[in-house]
Amino acid sequence: MVRSPVLKSKLVRDNKAEDRDLYSGLIRLHVLHHAVEGPIFGLGMMEELARHDYRISPGSLYPLLQGLEKKGYLRSTEDRNGKSLRRVYVLASDRTQTARQPNSGTSCPRGRNRRF
Ligand SMILES: [Zn+2]
How far is the CA of 116 from the centre of ligand 1 (A)? Predict the structure, then answer.
């Protein structure tokens, strides 16, 4: 996403309110980018974001996902997998890919020209 290490480290270093807004906006965009590709869930998304060097804690990510749902971008369902129950988010449109399995976050290749 932000391929510029300079910009990213500036965002982290300065840590001003407006920069934090931009940083969390980038994370939101990245989350939506993956939700377009298929269902996502919190832990998988956190690993995916970490792969892109975005640092976000569960305490920040889950409210972010809930916020996106509240705003109508995402829709969530509970997915029971054996004993564990996890919340799976899909893009809130009529064309969601309900038949697809949650995205483990491996579909976003690290590429020099890749923006997301
Ligand atoms: Zn990604």
Answer: 6
Whether 112 shows a pLDDT value over 80: the answer reads no
How close is the Cα of 43 to the center of ligand 1, in Å? 13
| Distance of alpha carbon 13 from alpha carbon 78, whole angstroms | 37
Q: Which of the two residues, 114 and 45, has the higher pLDDT score?
A: 45
Please calculate the CA angle 28-2-8 and round it to the nearest 5 degrees: 100
Residue 44 covered by a domain? yes
**How many angstroms separate the alpha carbon of residue 82 from the centre of ligand 1?**
27
In terms of pLDDT, which residue wins out, 6 or 43? 43
Q: How many domains does the chain have?
A: 1
Q: Identify whether 46 is part of a domain.
A: yes
- Is residue 40 domain-resident? yes
* Span from the CA of 56 to the centroid of ligand 1 (angstroms): 14
Asked whether residue 57 is domain-assigned, the answer is yes
